[in-house]
Amino acid sequence: MLNRIFVIAAALEAVVLAQSCPSLTASYPAPSVASGYEARLIAQDLESPRGLLFDNKGNLLVVERGKGISSFNVKGDGSCVTLSNKKTVVGDGALNHGIEISTDSKSLYASSVETVFKYEYDAGKQSIKGQGKAIVNGMTTSDLVTRTLLLSSKSKNKLLVSRGGDENIDLSAVDVNGGDSQIRIFDPTKDGVNFTSGTTLGWGLRNAVGVAENPKDGGVWSAENNADNIERDGFEIHENNPAEELNYHGKLDDAKNTLLNQNFGYPLCYGAWNTSEIPSAGALQIGQQFAVAEENATKSDSFCRDDRQAPRLVFQPHSSPLDLKFDSKGENLYVTLHGSWNTEDPVGYSVSVVKFGADGQPTEPSTSTSALSPIIGNSNTTACPGSCFRPAGLAWDAKGRLYFTSDNTGEIYVLVKSGGKGLDESRTSATGAASTVSYSIMSIAVSVVACLFASFM
């Protein structure tokens, strides 16, 4: 009799769990998730969602291209997350990617192709006051239109803005004064500043969409999307070259930062991935820079090696890294790979992680081709990009769970460790330690068992 009671209780508990965690189903084959992780699709039907973040009230803010910024209330534990009460925070269809927020959540930042806006934000009401101020302008380009934003947590009043070039190979980027293909530093308390008036953190960066600051030491990193359709000496080498790059820019609060205002190569020099396919490669190694194109005939590989800053790591060409987020200890750097279009076989389309050491640097050498460890990716990349998810933005919540958007499918996923623990357990707040869902299930299960006992007494 007692065994029967426990069987019934377990069955009811399973029903309650299923009912408390509604499941969404993607229109494409379910993604593959690495051992030790869980992922769940938690939102659909968004308008090309890109950047996202949480305010200090736990609300999720998302940039929807062509629409503006939307907010959601977030509930649930582990991977059992539900988003509800969607609300328009900023109704501006020109906003297309970048989003940031101050520590006190009173200032919200977002970007269009031309402008960085600052809004007075109320997290309790999930609303802004007024129309916002244009704090950085003069950034319009016709090709690479994202403007990534990073508000430093280590250096007061420093807002980083990343701007790409005006075409695939933008030769005007050889002039630092032009402002193309650069990351610049601004004071967010000022407004109406032209992009070229900002302090140059780094230039020669074709399209450094991913930008992150290591919380351990304040080191700034960027992930560069490199050029397509590359040729060298008249030979096409674009299938496996040039590499995407992870670049190191030093620390913003370091007065002796030798990497400040360094040139990272573009449009004259590019990181090597498969050196066997590069004509006249000589002793060129993976991760070193080489010269390309007829316009660069007077530029040699030695110039690229000696006069330009090499990447710290390289990733597979055309994998398109879009966002970077460190965990709270600076031990893991999570990367969204938006995926390729300029390759015969699709690559990218995943969320991966790069291991970092106690010195604030990646554990892999600059010549590595295996620095990225995939966590979640499409199970069938042959259907990409048409019928698969394409990761874009990343955000941490207070429970150490990692969220990411998929822009082309209009979705949001949550990623946790197996068993529902946050990827970043050090980030977990004390109030988030107990699982309300688990308590609800257990209380129901206990009540059921008690009732069953009573019925047999």
UniProtKB/TrEMBL annotation:
| Gene3D superfamilies the record matches | TolB, C-terminal domain
Q: Which UniProt keywords apply?
A: Signal
Q: Which InterPro entries match?
A: 6-blade_b-propeller_TolB-like (IPR011042), Beta-prop_PDH (IPR054539), Quinoprot_gluc/sorb_DH_b-prop (IPR011041), SMP-30/CGR1_Lactonase (IPR051262)
Q: What is this protein called?
A: Soluble quino protein glucose/sorbosone dehydrogenase
Pfam families noted in UniProt: TrAA12 (PF22807)
High-level lineage = Eukaryota, Fungi, Dikarya, Ascomycota, Pezizomycotina
- SUPFAM superfamilies attached to this UniProt entry: Soluble quinoprotein glucose dehydrogenase
Pyrroloquinoline quinone-dependent pyranose dehydrogenase beta-propeller domain location, by residue?
31-417
Q: Give the range the annotation lists for the signal sequence.
A: 1-18
Q: Which top-rank group of organisms is this from?
A: Eukaryota
